[in-house]
């Protein structure tokens, strides 16, 4: 969440956690590989910025499919009940 | 946010009937989407619907039958993208059926969500992110419902 407002260096980020700098670095690397953070070298520091696209699109899909299946199953129920009344 | 979309549904009908509606192309079309499904493991098929530009979706779900256990389990891969064969969303749909005295219990799981550029998606997630994501989703939903014509 620290990155949602600003870009920070790995050192800045590490100051906010109880973890060691290498541990923070490792987490950053995972998020970077996953496409959620972009890293830019400026001078001797590495700046991290949150990439929002990846998050938003996948989350939008998840919400979409959740509703999608709920409505499709409802439709199947109606269809079955109409076709095969008890 | 759930990694897996799960739905459980009870149908007061025999498992054989429900299975038919899950595995016969014409019957599937009546409640799901137009498709060229065939119940053969390894068979590539498509579901076709309207495109959703905001989701980078050209209207075709590219699927492959992964598993069939008659009257019990059916699964297929479920991929989509913006067009020209490009895949940006990769997932799996699993149906499981359970016969009961009064009908059929259906368990649906839609899972394994991954986008091409972030297949490690879930490895990097923590609770803090999840709460934010839910908020984002609500906002997106509100925005999409407001101006959707897909």
Blueprint of the fold:
The complex is a heterodimer of chains A (86) and B (150).
Chain A: E1 8-9, H1 10-15, H2 21-33, E2 37-42, E3 45-50, H3 52-83
Antiparallel strand pairs in A: 1-3, 2-3
Chain B: E1 5-11, H1 15-23, H2 25-31, E2 34-35, E3 44-48, E4 60-69, E5 73-80, E6 89-100, E7 103-115, H3 127-147
Antiparallel strand pairs in B: 1-7, 2-3, 3-4, 4-5, 5-6, 6-7
Helix pairs in contact in B: 1-2
Description:
Chain A is α+β, with helices and mostly antiparallel strands. Chain A has three helices and three strands, in the order E-H-H-E-E-H. A three-stranded antiparallel beta sheet of chain A has the order 1-3-2. The longest helix of chain A is centred in the last third of the chain and has 32 residues, at 52-83. The mean pLDDT of chain A is 80. Chain B has three helices and seven strands, in the order E-H-H-E-E-E-E-E-E-H. A seven-stranded antiparallel beta sheet of chain B has the order 1-7-6-5-4-3-2. The interface between A and B is large, with 34 and 41 residues.
Backbone shape of chain A: rod-shaped
- Gyration radius from CA atoms of chain B, angstroms: 17 Å
- What's the rounded overall pLDDT mean of chain B? 82
Q: What are the secondary-structure elements of chain B, in order, as H or E?
A: EHHEEEEEEH
Give the helix tally of chain A: 3
The percentage of residues in β strands of chain A lies in 15-25%
Largest sheet of chain A: 3 strands, antiparallel
SS element count, helices of chain B: 3
């Amino acid at each position: 969440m620290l990155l949602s407002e600003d870009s920070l260096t790995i050192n800045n980020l590490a100051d906010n956690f109880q973890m060691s700098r290498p541990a923070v670095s490792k987490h950053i690397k995972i998020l970077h590989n996953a496409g959620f953070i972009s890293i830019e070298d400026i001078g001797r520091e590495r700046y991290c910025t949150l990439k929002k696209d990846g998050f938003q699109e996948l989350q939008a899909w998840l919400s979409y499919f959740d509703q999608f299946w709920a409505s499709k199953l409802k439709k199947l129920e109606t269809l079955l009940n109409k076709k095969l009344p008890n | 946010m759930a990694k897996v979309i799960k739905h459980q549904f009870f149908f007061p009908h025999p498992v054989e009937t429900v299975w038919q509606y899950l595995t016969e192309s014409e019957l599937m079309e009546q409640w799901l989407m137009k498709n060229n499904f065939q119940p053969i493991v390894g068979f590539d098929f498509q579901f076709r619907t309207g495109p959703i530009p905001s989701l980078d979706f050209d209207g075709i779900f590219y699927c492959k039958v992964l598993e069939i256990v008659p009257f019990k389990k059916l699964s297929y891969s479920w991929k989509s993208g913006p067009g020209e064969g490009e895949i940006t969303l990769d997932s799996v749909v699993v149906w499981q059926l359970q016969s009961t005295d009064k009908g059929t219990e259906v368990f649906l799981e839609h899972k394994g969500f991954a986008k091409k550029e972030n297949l490690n998606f879930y490895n990097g997630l923590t609770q803090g992110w999840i709460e934010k994501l839910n908020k984002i989703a609500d906002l997106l939903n509100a925005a999409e419902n407001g101006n959707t014509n897909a």
